[in-house]
Amino acid sequence: MRTILLVVALLIVIAMALVWTGVINLNRNANGSVSIETKDVEVGTTKANVQVPVVRTETRQVDVPAVAVSNGSNAQ
Asked: Which of 23, 39, 50, 72 could, after both became Cys, cross-link 18 (CB 3.0–4.6 A)?
């Protein structure tokens, strides 16, 4: 029940934000009816210069852990 109320509250907040920012316009007509006007929203990509971290690999000789198992015989 809490989850449903939280989702409803979130949808109300989103609707209020869309009206406040002007994406949705609510107009009341002379006869009392309400009309809704929406602006077009365009989604896409554009070219931009951004700084991107670069990861490089290089070969180095380092000490790594090693495990050796013997069977108890001293065979050489």
From this structure: 23
Whether the CB-CB separation of 25 and 37 falls below 8 Å is answered with yes
Q: What is the residue whose two structure tokens read 């951004």?
A: 50
Tokens of 38: 């929406």
Residue numbers of the domain that contains 9:
2-38
Could you tell me the two tokens for 54? 């670069």
Domain count, the chain: 1
Can you give the pLDDT of all 76 residues of the chain as single tens digits? 899 999 999 999 998 888 888 888 888 878 878 888 887 878 899 999 999 999 999 999 989 888 888 777 665 5
Q: Determine the Cα–Cα distance for residues 45 and 52; give it in Å rounded to an integer.
A: 17
6 assigned to some structural domain: yes
Per-residue confidence (pLDDT) for residue 27, from 0 to 100: 82
